[in-house]
Specification:
Order of helices and strands: HEEHEEHE
Number of domains: 1
Number of strands: 5
Radius of gyration: 12 Å
CATH architecture: 2-Layer Sandwich
Structural class: alpha+beta
CATH class: Alpha Beta
Largest sheet: 3 strands, mixed
Shape: globular
Helix content: 25-40%
Length: 80
């Protein structure tokens, strides 16, 4: 069973290279949704459309896909 706390712990390892702060501590992780084997991460719109958006999406996917029981990972940027 995949738990939000497990995912949040992994997301703390994802560091914004511009600020040297984790995306969790920076406060850009808006939601973590788990639907059986599907995980959806919603980040702040702050980095949508920037090179960091692609970087965050790639790193988050790489880090989460090693967790057993995850079939699908989606990273989106919230509209605010």
């Amino acid at each position: 069973m995949i738990l939000q706390d497990d995912i949040k712990t992994i997301l703390k390892e994802v560091v914004n290279p511009e600020l040297n702060v984790s995306i969790v501590d920076e406060g850009i992780v808006r939601e973590i949704n788990i639907d059986e084997a599907k995980v959806s991460i919603i980040l702040s719109h702050r980095y949508a459309g920037t090179p960091l958006a692609e970087y965050f999406t790639s790193i988050i996917t790489q880090k989460l896909e090693v967790l057993p029981g995850i079939d699908s990972i989606t990273v989106e940027f919230a509209e605010e």
